[in-house]
Amino acid sequence: MTTVLTPPVVTDLRGHAVPVDHYIGGTWVADSDRFAVFDPATGRQIAEVADADESRALEALDAAVDAQQTWRGLPPRRRADLFARAHRILRERADMISEIMTLESGKPLAEARAEFALSADFFLWYSEQIAHLHGSFAEASQGGYRIITSHEPVGPTLLITPWNFPLLMIARKAGAALAAGCTAVVKSARETPLTCALFVQVLHDAGFPPGVVNLVHTTSSARLSAAVMGDPRLRKVSFTGSTEVGTTLLRQAAPGIVNAAMELGGDGPLVVLHDADIELAASQAVIAKFRNAGQACVAANRIIVDERIADAFIERFVALTKALHVGSGFDPATDVGPIISATQREGVAALVAAFEEIDATRLTGGGIIEGEGYFFEPTVYEVHDRDNELCHRELFAPIATIYRVADTAEAITFANDTRYGLAAYVFTRDLSRAFTVGERLEFGMVGVNRGIMADPAAPFGGTKASGLGREGGQHGICEFLEPKYLAVTVDEEGALA
Ligand code: NAD
Fold it and tell me: Which of left, alpha, beta for 153 (phi over 0: left; psi -120 to 50: alpha)?
């Protein structure tokens, strides 16, 4: 039986009580400084959330440090039971958490529900792994001793999450850290703190011990993270966000040699080869491009099409794009929700203005949708001249760009012509070709004939400027573990000496 803690401050949102304070050492902690959270579909304020400064964040780190030894010492089966309980409670709260996610991020409710289901699956998957984190045993190559390798948690961690997948990012990171036996300080994204709070409340109600997970919200991310990163008790930072901020954190990690995992930006190519199933490629490209209004690190940033089928593909892709319904995430007809903020939408408009200046043809969209909220038309360009910075940067917007290429070789060369290396996609009916092209694409993940590929058992992450390390799969848990090697002397009969 778990005790349900009533946080001291809640806001009644769509009938749900949502914590709006920090969570430190097992209790909700208020701050007199607060900041507003907005619904991007209306532009209206929906909540006021506690605003942490550096000292509050260091308090959270104190709690994580205090809990570290007890948490790592808990038998794996006990930790696994807590995860299983959290998974059950999460599922009971599916509607509430999905609705709050839609409210603060704007994403269509169907997308929020899909993100919820995947996040819950991560918890189930971690619960199944915890008791199976095995080491190894080997004979030393020169004989005389044995090599015993085990895995130890790296220690207290700082987890920094973005707003575009408010639940998945915290569930995937915190799940892996906690499964490995690390404690955590989570810093939510300013735009979406409520989903993070609901997630942490689930862990509390499941019975995770005080201090194992701690959550702070802030408008001073840079100052707060600099303070925590400079504390020698912190042993790992795991960050999801832009390459620019990731670079800053890596600099901050250097003096203390803090272990760092980075899930950063992307410039994903979606390659449609001459033998592709055009209907499949077009429909999956629409998902890979316009999911979350294009605000996804794994979005199809450049659609690269063999010219032999380009006319047919473009006609179908544009028709499907024109059919997308843009609106509130709570409208069941909606395919594409709002952009996260007014500032971000201005950035999207500026990108469109820039594409108008280069050798590119606008095939649909291009405008701000007037009225309340931050909506923008799904937009498609066919770009004729690739020698432009616009063709090699992350758009992070509902703007699809299509490029024609002569053949597979040219498609691969252009696909790889980017500083990023997160997700790529290839469409072909020939699996042997898919395999060859997949191997030559310099990306951490390649979707073959599909536009979505996140899964608890898969190692998610990128190469080059897209990051360091992986989330998900065994690799994801290993990110929070360090191998420990014991050299144990044995006598001639093999007995411990
Ligand atoms: P962002 O880098 O601005 O912010 C991400 C997080 O970092 C937020 O919590 C923010 O408050 C915090 N932050 C900002 N400045 C900071 C600083 N100086 N020190 C510490 N923390 C700081 O990114 P965003 O706009 O929220 O998200 C968009 C970016 O995230 C895109 O580039 C996208 O590709 C990337 N992203 C990557 C993945 C992935 O798994 N690879 C997933 C989602 C998003």
Answer: beta
- What is the structure's pLDDT at 3? 45
Structural domain boundaries enclosing 100: 2-264+466-484
368-384 burial string, b = 16+ CB within 10 Å, else e? Answer: eeeeebbbbbbbbbbbe
Pair 257, 282 in one domain: no
Based on the domain organization, do 211 and 149 belong to the same domain? yes
Predicted confidence (pLDDT) at residue 232 exceeds the cutoff of 70: yes
CATH number of the domain bearing residue 274:
3.40.309.10
Indicate if 161 and 252 belong to the same structural domain. yes
Please check whether residues 276 and 232 belong to one and the same domain: no
How high is the mean pLDDT of the chain?
A: 96
Supply 391's token pair: 């063709």
Which tokens in the block code for residue 138? Answer: 């080997």
> Is 443 within a domain?
yes
Query: 68: CA distance to ligand 1 center in Å?
Result: 27
Residue nearest to atom 22 of ligand 1 (CA): 221
Q: Is the pLDDT of residue 130 over 70?
A: yes
Length of the chain: 497
Tokens 């998974």 -> residue: 87
Half-sphere exposure of 173 (CA within 13 A, CB side): 34
Q: Tell me the whole-structure pTM to 2 decimals.
A: 0.95
- Whole-angstrom Cα distance, residue 242 to residue 239? 9
Distances from the Cα of 429 to the Cα of 87, 171, 272, 432, 434, angstroms = 38, 35, 10, 9, 8
Ligand 1 midpoint to CA 138 (Å): 42
| Residues 310, 163 share a domain | no
Cα dihedral across residues 162, 166, 170, 171: positive or negative: negative
State the total domains in the chain.
2
Residue type, 250: L
- Asked, for residue 461, whether it belongs to a domain, the answer is no
Instruction: Find, among 170, 153, 159, 164, the residue nearest to 67 by Cα.
Output: 153
175 and 323 assigned to the same domain: no
User: Residues lining ligand 1, judged by CB closer than 6 Å?
Assistant: 160-165, 187, 189-190, 221-222, 225, 240-242, 245, 248, 263-266, 297, 394, 396, 422, 462, 467
C-alpha 297 to ligand 1 mean position (Å): 10
Amino acid identity, residue 441?
L
Shared domain for 232 and 282, answered yes or no, is: no
Q: pLDDT digits over 443-464, tens only?
A: 999 999 999 999 999 999 999 9
In a domain, 457, yes or no: no
Same domain, 284 and 136: no
pLDDT above 70 for 6: no
Q: How far apart are CA 397 and CA 379, in angstroms?
A: 9
The residue among 437, 391, 399, 396 whose CA lies nearest residue 417 is: 391
Cα atoms in the 13 Å half-sphere on the side-chain side of 153: 25
